[in-house]
Amino acid sequence: MLTVEEYWLLVELKVENALLYQTSIVTKDNKTAGDSSEPLCRPLVTMSYTFKKEERLCSKRRIDGLFHNGSSFVLYPYRIVFTLAEPAESTASVPVQCILSVSKRRFKRAVDRNFIKRRMREAYRLQKSFLYDFLHEHSLHLLVAFQYVGKEKLPSAQLHQRMLQVLGKLKDESSKLYLEMDH
């Protein structure tokens, strides 16, 4: 048996799906939403908080091109290398393909490197919508390398905060590149 709160949560999810797929919307009054009645909630474009294979940068040719032709900046504990990808060569479904790396020189044990990469991946996965909205709006595709340059393991709260700052700076830098393209 569903509680009242669970029921309305399900109704809100149905409204979001209806908005995404241009179907009819159910309101609290059990009426079909149209011009006269107000929908249950405002239209939202939901973002998937996943990190799929298409979002990972795996191609050796693209990785080499990224490090040879890309721009970079450092926002401790991350070093970011990025470049605009050609629309024909990038995956059309995702605006960003990225690679995460941790220095073997600084962290000798694979357990520590994997731990940091897992935290970096989690921070990126939860906050990537900040960057994705901008890139979808301007039809841009980025290739990005997130390199951990810190000397010790930092708390995940600090990694999340820095990742948000990194994504903001990436958004600013990609907007500069967009403006340089004569748009």
Please report the distance between the alpha carbons of the first and last residues: 55 Å
The largest beta-sheet arranges its strands as 1-2-4-3
Shape: globular
What Rg do the Cα atoms give?
20 Å
| Helix percentage | 40-55%
Task: Give the SSE order as H and E letters.
Answer: HHEEEHHEH
Structural class assignment: alpha+beta
Low-pLDDT stretches: 19-28, 31-45
- Average pLDDT confidence is 81
Strand content: 5-15%
Structure summary, number of beta strands: 4
Count, helices? 5
Characterize the main sheet: 4 strands, mixed
Key terms:
183 residues, alpha+beta, 4-stranded mixed sheet, globular
In short:
The protein is of the alpha+beta class and 183 residues long.
3D structure, described in words:
- The chain is an alpha+beta fold and 183 residues long.
- It is built from five helices and four strands.
- The protein has helices spanning 4-20, 60-69, 110-127, 129-138, 156-180; strands at residues 71-75, 78-84, 96-102, 142-148.
- Strands 1-2-4-3 form a four-stranded mixed sheet, sandwiched between helices.
- α3 packs across α5.
- The longest helix has 25 residues, at 156-180.
- It is globular, with a radius of gyration of 20 Å.
- Mean pLDDT is 81; it is low at 19-28 and 31-45.
